[in-house]
Write a structure and sequence with these properties.
alpha+beta; Rossmann fold; Elongation Factor Tu (Ef-tu), domain 3; 272 residues; eight-stranded antiparallel β-sheet; elongated; 17 strands
Length: 272
């Protein structure tokens, strides 16, 4: 039987998540349901994409990922031109696994070159499904668990919303990156992969500029510096990570809050 994962902003205080699991489990024998992350903050689709992207390689083929995060759009202000439709629900097969999500830009956040077929789920009562994870996603997941075809419950679309993550870039002798995710330890994960760093910097000397400090070494472990000191390492996902031994880098280095996200810039100056 296929695994089913849940990535949501429902949290664990309210009964919503338990209700979803009950509806999933009721018709299944020995269900395999995993909370990938169910306390995503403030409808943060970027965080959801980061978590799912880095979890996908460890799940078997035909796993079904339910990602119930809406893209909240303020039509009167910043997002008024965005063509986001939170009442439209999509399904795709990506890296031999199924992903079900609102039309929120998730697929291209997982991979900027994403070009897999995307399907819009059929369902009745377009404006009635306030609890779409239970009312729509569960039924679609149960259909896929039964090894039935996507095309039986959906139709192919090409006009789905596409969102893209800010990419690191080189300007002269400086590699510029940004923080894209903060984990529960307060470590700031940046959009510079180890592969990209080695490609650009190679064996050159470098200085990494952080708020209030500069670092000229990539560390292998957190314990290589004294308690309370900042460090840079490549984490298990292969991303450059800003950390503070024993403390929260996010709190100590004080990136500026910008609503659901944060603003943290990283400069790596390299030279011969």
């Amino acid at each position: 039987m296929s695994m089913i994962t849940l990535t949501t902003d429902l949290g664990y205080r309210d009964p919503y998540l338990a209700i979803v699991k009950a509806k999933l489990m009721a018709p299944l024998v020995s269900p395999k349901i995993i909370d990938l992350s169910c306390d995503i903050k403030d409808n943060n689709i970027s965080d959801a994409a980061f978590i799912l992207k880095n979890a996908l390689p460890d799940f078997p083929d035909n796993t079904i990922h339910l990602v119930a995060i809406k893209f909240i759009v303020d039509r009167s202000n910043l997002h008024k031109e965005l063509h986001v439709d939170n009442s439209r629900f999509l399904v795709t097969r990506f890296k031999n696994q199924f992903i079900i999500s609102p039309d929120n830009g998730l697929f291209t956040l997982l991979d900027s070159a994403f070009d897999e077929p995307v399907y819009q789920l059929y369902y009745e009562g377009r404006n009635k499904h306030h609890f779409f994870l239970k009312d729509v996603f569960v039924e679609a997941a149960l259909h896929l668990v039964a090894n039935k075809k996507i095309e039986e419950i959906s139709s192919r679309v090409t006009d789905y919303y596409k969102a893209y993550q800010f990419e690191c870039f080189v300007s002269g002798n400086i590699l510029r990156g940004k923080g894209i995710y903060v984990d529960d330890f307060g470590n700031i994960i940046c959009n510079i992969t180890e592969e990209r760093f080695r490609e650009v910097v190679g064996n050159k000397k470098f200085i990494i500029t952080l708020p209030g400090t500069r670092i000229s070494k990539i560390h292998a472990t957190y314990d290589e510096v004294k308690y309370g000191n900042p460090l840079i390492l490549f984490n298990s996902f292969g991303y450059l990570e800003v950390a503070v031994n024993g403390k929260s880098a996010f709190n100590m280095l004080c990136p500026r809050d910008i609503g659901a996200g944060f603003d943290f810039n990283l400069l790596i100056e390299f030279y011969d």
